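Usage

Read records sequentially. Each one opens with the input sequence:
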Amino acid sequence: MKVSDFDYELPEELIAQDPLEDRSSSRLLILDKETGGIRHEVFRNIKNELRPGDCLVINNTRVIPARLFGTREGTGGAVELLLLKRVTGDIWETLVRPGKKARPGMRIVFSDKLAAEVTEVVDDGNRLVRFEYDGIFEEILDELGEMPLPPYITHKLADPERYQTVYAKYKGSAAAPTAGLHFTPELLAEIREMGVEIAEVTLHVGLGTFRPVKVDDVKDHHMHSEFYKIDAETAEKINKAKAAGGRIIAVGTTSCRTLESAADENGVIHAGSDNTEIFIYPGYKFKAVDALITNFHLPKSTLMMLVSALAGRENIMKAYKEAVELRYRFFSFGDAMFIR
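and closes with the structure output:
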């Protein structure tokens, strides 16, 4: 299976640069994974596709202002640092630009309150850095950091909260779980009132999602690691819904990867926390997830492979072709798809 099998033509003007004023007014492409049938709706009408007894699983991670700008100690050269994930305590895995000069021992100064030292070069050229600060790290980060929008978004975001879901709680992501951006508190309340369970899991999204796949054969690709957590109450809620015949509907590929990582061979979700490197591509047998709400993904990305595993590659490529023809908005601030 070749990475090129998941390529498609996308006019640049279809990449959404700004969020819609009303989160729930995005367009919604509904794809039947069994028949390949396609319908078109408005996102707020997703509630008409849900049934009492279904369980909607959302990722309550919160994006941190992970982009920092500083100077190299001694030379004053500009340095950009992107926090990917906390390894332990004050040590973080980061992406440093320019990378060539970011050798162990290099110090970066961000302000009189915050500095960092590169301690190690790790996989993919990422750097481990140890932060030194005066005060509370999270407060300093809120003050100095910027929201780490994906590289294909060139517009500045007027309101940083629009790159957070309305249910974001636990800080730790370098990117938003974007399928959830379409939900409003009102829509979630309506869904609950219908008798649909809403279960919250946490997966802190890394930037590996946006990294291009550099191999030709899909099976040669190694997935990035991401931290997830499911508490006992949530696991019980999901398992109860499944046992009663309800569908488990993942909101976003991050919720999907969390559920499939935590499920045993019988589809039972086990509570706990771990790091997952699960790579889902065609041929994968889903254990827990029945349906998926997701955005439109980058060509040749691991996320294209994941949705193709659930719906079938031919169905996905046909749906994407139709979405391009109908001028859907793509990627993080774009429109949505419901694979049912």
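Summary fields computed downstream for this record:
- Residues 3-63+159-339 form a domain with the QueA-like fold (CATH 3.40.1780.10).
- The CA atoms of residues 91 and 304 lie 32 Å apart.
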